[in-house]
Write the structure tokens for this entry.
Amino acid sequence: MSSKKGLLIVISGPSGVGKTTLGRKLLTQFPEMKYSISVTTRKTRKTEVNGHDYVFVCMEKFKKDIEKGCFAEWAEVGENLYGTSKPFIENVINSGYDVLLDIDVQGASKLRKSYQENGIFIFISPPSIHTLRKRLNLRKTDSKQEIDARIILAKKEIKESNSYNYVVVNKDLNKTLEDLSYIISSEKRNKMKRKNGNRK
């Protein structure tokens, strides 16, 4: 086990704001960073791969894992359960590596209580609700009713952004990626300075 702990980097934001794309690019820029794959009880979609997109489990196993304390956070979304593996996070950060999570506001709130010291919480915001709706329409994966529901949820999520360490407006993907990389690099440097200062 490493003597230095890694960082828990949490990215949240409304559906369609670009979190998945940004997350993938961050993993390329920081090759030692590990991605936390969420556990879910929902059915696998045709394009999804178990263990890559999500870890798919049955409802019975998920509930047993809740009882065992296997989740750093979990939530019920519709008829399905979603959770973040606590052993995975602990193993990664205790080994000195950073872990990246793409989770909703509800999950981030729970993690903030447990990982305040080693956590960086970043909210990705759209330039406007109009722009977000336009992006969701361009994806052509949701019905008008589903998009309307996502917009209502987005407005609620944006109101929670002030509880994050950073808010980054994703107007331009490359500029947003540059901002995220700067935030993470700065936090890593500051953490190292604090650690070296404590040794004196």
In short: The beta strands are 8-12, 34-35, 39-40, 55-56, 71-77, 80-85, 99-102, 119-125, 166-169. The radius of gyration is 17 Å.
